[in-house]
């Protein structure tokens, strides 16, 4: 006898069903906090957690943008080099304005950063969509271009921010709002805006549709070119926001700025529950993934079990494990 389930029962079943992709990152985060406390009680100290989450804010902001790109079926390997390039251009612009328009140098520099980030993202998007080049190859190429440009601009050295601007710019990283470090506030704000776009607006549904099945999306009247190009533009803006927050931390741009950030960003997105094949994005899972990576690095520093020089290696292992879980899970 065939059992017929009523639509109401199906709705209740869906309401009570919890996906690992939705809860997994947060369960892993809780487990990591418990393990960290067992290894070293100072791990859960308020100061330590605040510093860790603040350091993870840069990756979290960029990873939020990467969630759009990956959920639409794309990939961006250039985010670290792009961040370095934007940082260099921003500092150079602010330094040029400092002698004459010091009061406007910082806000104008932030505006330039956003414009440059948008243009870099659009460049990646158009190469992928209009140029019809695989995202891996296209962004691998722009990764080399952006890294070469920042190395050229710094002449292999550094571009420090003007001394007259350092104190005024310092609160963007070292300041706080209602007791919360500014980078954390900005990363949460970015995640909130991204959540509205991805989950509440038509573009979010189109982004997921393109990533899930490009042919079906095309037959449904969705523009593949505009959808993916906008995703890369969002990625560029997020990289620019991260660069704006990052500048006061070191006060300079170097050829090594943002090195290997692309690995951390992709790892954050994957362990946050977004499939690399596209089709669905998890904004808050991505943010949790960025915090998890920084907590693991911090735990490695506080403990004597694994050398802190193996942080990148551990991150590589994590992304492989996360991909295996996605591959073999239903």
Task: Quickly describe the structure.
By secondary structure, the chain is mostly helical. It is built from 15 helices and 4 strands. The chain has a two-stranded antiparallel ribbon. It has a two-stranded antiparallel sheet with strand order 2-3.
- CATH fold-level topology: ABC transporter involved in vitamin B12 uptake, BtuC
The stretches of 5 or more residues where confidence is low (pLDDT under 50) are 1-17
What is the global morphology?
globular
Estimate percent helicity: over 70%
* Alpha-carbon Rg, integer: 21 Å
Name of the top-level CATH class: Mainly Alpha
User: Could you give the order of strands across the largest sheet?
Assistant: 1-4
Query: DSSP strand (E) fraction?
Result: under 5%
CATH architecture annotation name: Orthogonal Bundle
Task: Count structural domains.
Answer: 1
What about the largest sheet? Answer: 2 strands, antiparallel
Secondary structure tally, helices: 15
Mean pLDDT: 88
Descriptors:
single chain; mainly alpha; ABC transporter involved in vitamin B12 uptake, BtuC; 4 strands; 75% helix; disordered N terminus
Describe the structure.
The chain is an all-alpha fold and 330 residues long. It has a single domain, classed as ABC transporter involved in vitamin B12 uptake, BtuC (Orthogonal Bundle). Helix content is 75%, strand content 2%. It has 15 helices and 4 strands. The strands form 2 sheets. It has a two-stranded antiparallel sheet with strand order 1-4. β2 (176-177) and β3 (180-181) form a beta hairpin. α3 (46-71) runs antiparallel to α12 and α9 packs across α10 (202-212). It is globular and about 55 Å long. 43% of the residues are buried.
